[in-house]
Design brief:
Strand content: 25-35%
Radius of gyration: 15 Å
Oligomer: single chain
Structural class: alpha+beta
Distance between the termini: 18 Å
Largest sheet: 7 strands, antiparallel
Shape: globular
Number of helices: 3
Helix content: 10-25%
Length: about 180
């Protein structure tokens, strides 16, 4: 797992958040209840809302992300709004060159849950991080990872960009974790 801080410029981070704020109430969102394999929802009670990023935003994000991402042939970038009770069960993203998470919340308290937990290759222990603004976590080694459920007392959504690099642009899967 690679952890990189301050990935986006302030201008790009602001544009990404502004687009989200303008579209948060739109009828353009889908749900992890519909999109994700049921095995990924074990131990969670809430739903994660998912929306693709528009091309104009991808055109801004990709040049900055490419400075730190592994090489790929195609990429998907989606907003995820992790609601209370939402999380994702242990999985490895092994169908992709990499899976990555970019955290968009300005602040996130450890008691809100939504911790990113992973097991490094060849280790018996698990590690965890608290979401931090503009931090990117890249899984390019198919390491098992999960997100703990967001607390029912969380005062905000856990907001991320989920990014998947693929080998074949013709692969039209939804790029939601399998």
């Amino acid at each position: 797992m690679k952890i990189i801080k301050n990935v986006l410029t302030k201008e790009t981070l602001d544009k990404t958040r502004l687009h989200l704020q303008k579209n948060i109430g739109a009828y353009k969102w889908s749900s992890s209840e519909i999109l994700w394999n049921p095995g990924l929802r074990i131990g969670t009670t809430g739903s994660t809302l998912v929306q693709e990023t528009p091309q104009w935003l991808r055109d801004i994000l990709i040049p900055e992300l490419n400075k730190v991402l592994p090489e790929y042939e195609d990429i998907n970038i989606n907003y995820h709004l992790w609601q209370r009770g939402s999380g994702i069960s242990a999985h490895s993203d092994n169908d992709y060159i990499f899976g990555a998470t970019l955290y968009l919340n300005e602040e996130w308290h450890v008691n809100f849950g939504g911790l990113f937990v992973w097991q490094p290759k060849d280790e018996d222990t698990m590690r965890a991080i608290i979401p931090e603004e503009n931090m990117l976590v890249i899984n390019d080694n198919s390491e098992t990872h999960m997100v703990t459920p967001v607390s029912m007392e969380a005062t905000q959504y856990r907001v991320t960009l989920q990014i998947w690099g693929k080998h074949d642009p013709a692969d039209v899967r939804t790029c939601l974790l399998y």
